[in-house]
Amino acid sequence: MQVKTPRHLLTLLDLTPAELQHITSRATELKRMHRAGEIYEPLKNKVLGMIFEKSSTRTRVSFEAGIAQLGGSAIFLSPRDTQLGRGEPIEDSAKVLSRMCDIIMIRTFGHDIVENFSANSRVPVINALTDDFHPCQLLADMQTYQEHRGSIKGKTVVWVGDGNNMCHSYINAAKQFDFNLVVNCPEGFEPMAELMEANKDRVKIIRDTKEAAKGAHLLVTDVWASMGQEEEQKEREKVFKSYQVSPAVMDLADKDALFMHCLPAHRGEEISHDMLDDPRSVVWDEAENRLHAQKALMEFLLSA
Ligand code: CP
Ligand code: NVA
């Protein structure tokens, strides 16, 4: 049987800027249709496989609800009750699951795992978070910025905190959506050196949060300790103590600045207790847009 080479989303670099723009704009249209109660089922009978090796609220529910709304269905797969947890090789799992499912999303630890999986898959594979990247969150974030403020092209985004998977995806987004990025991180917690080097024309590090925030159009932060780093929590609390976004920090930014956080958030750590209630925070729209952005993504990948 002739099998078409599938398109994947492992990082934002797997799609062109035009394709990413199409997806974020399409997401806004799908949101309008959903809110209007329009039934739209282009993925009828399609099955989404969902592999979760880490916890999730937003990603699981948005993918599962999303495929259902598009007429398809989802199978939730955790290592606890599949052979993945008993050491069946990723390559074998990919070969088998991609003969049964039409599209597969994976949340796991090493980025090499999704690379290996996709290399052995007959169907599109979506990275639903690895230790290194979280591209689906960026689709929602870019959609959210566009809906509130229009194009992000040429704007300045400030990332406050750890140079982690979300920060890496912001660096890729800076390239693909054409904005400037300031990374405000403590020493020793910088993003991957090769990503910084590849994007040095548009990404820079500023260590002081107040300095970094000046004039920003979007401030973004994330937890100090990501999933898999639970044992570092106490140590990280000391290092990241001053890396907190608050309404006072937002006051230093552009007058139209927005605040985003992929959630879950830790009030009193990376954000002040009142940050999510500030009118500049759009975190609930951002979370909702995971649903619409991933519907647009699945529609795109299954028609590519
Ligand atoms: N932002 C995000 O990916 O949330 P979950 O971990 O709840 O999926
Ligand atoms: N950086 C966080 C993001 C969670 C959505 C983590 O990897 O745990």
TrEMBL record:
Its EC number is 2.1.3.3. Carbamoyl phosphate binds at S56, T57, R58, T59, Q83, R107, H134, P135, C136, Q137, C262, L263, R290. The keyword Transferase applies. Residues 7-147 form the Aspartate/ornithine carbamoyltransferase carbamoyl-P binding domain. It holds the Pfam family OTCace_N. It comes from the Bacteria. GO terms for cellular component: cytoplasm. SUPFAM superfamilies: Aspartate/ornithine carbamoyltransferase. InterPro entries: Asp/Orn_carbamoyltranf_P-bd, Asp/Orn_carbamoylTrfase, Asp/Orn_carbamoylTrfase_sf, Asp_carbamoyltransf_Asp/Orn-bd, Orn/put_carbamltrans, OTCase_ArgI. One of its GO terms (biological process) is L-arginine biosynthetic process via ornithine. It is found in: Cytoplasm. One of its GO terms (molecular function) is amino acid binding. Pathway: Amino-acid biosynthesis; L-arginine biosynthesis; L-arginine from L-ornithine and carbamoyl phosphate: step 1/3. Residues 153-300 form the Aspartate/ornithine carbamoyltransferase Asp/Orn-binding domain. Keywords: Cytoplasm, Transferase. The keyword Transferase applies. L-ornithine binds at N165, D222, S226, M227. It catalyses: carbamoyl phosphate + L-ornithine = L-citrulline + phosphate + H(+). NCBIfam families: orni_carb_tr (TIGR00658), PRK00779.1 (NF001986). Belongs to the aspartate/ornithine carbamoyltransferase superfamily. OTCase family. This is Ornithine carbamoyltransferase.
